[in-house]
């Protein structure tokens, strides 16, 4: 797949973004789709499924562009299902992670550990939770920035 198709997808997304309000742009995750299209293009040389996803995206956004004023619930569901399918493929086959993946993961682990440590060390649950959460966010953010530097983020 050539980069012209990715450029066309980006142009279609930019056109759609101009037609919609900010709330709808966020709901459809259009900014994320630009990154997804570029990631698919990066792996298109070695992965036939990525090529198929790029072709599907091109058709999807062309169709979305023509139906921009007539979107219904099924269109949103189809759009989000396609997003999940592509993200799952990128995560499983290419080892990429979504934005803030490690931060959310380690924040929840940190809170859990903070609860246990708060009860054991401080005899106070309220002290342990923010300490654990802070440590989890710090570790997760560091891992997210490392993944971004390595080009492993969707």
From TrEMBL:
This is Glycine zipper-like domain-containing protein. Residues 103-142 form the Glycine zipper-like domain. It comes from Piscibacillus salipiscarius. The chain crosses the membrane at residues 102-121, 127-143. Keywords: Membrane, Transmembrane, Transmembrane helix.
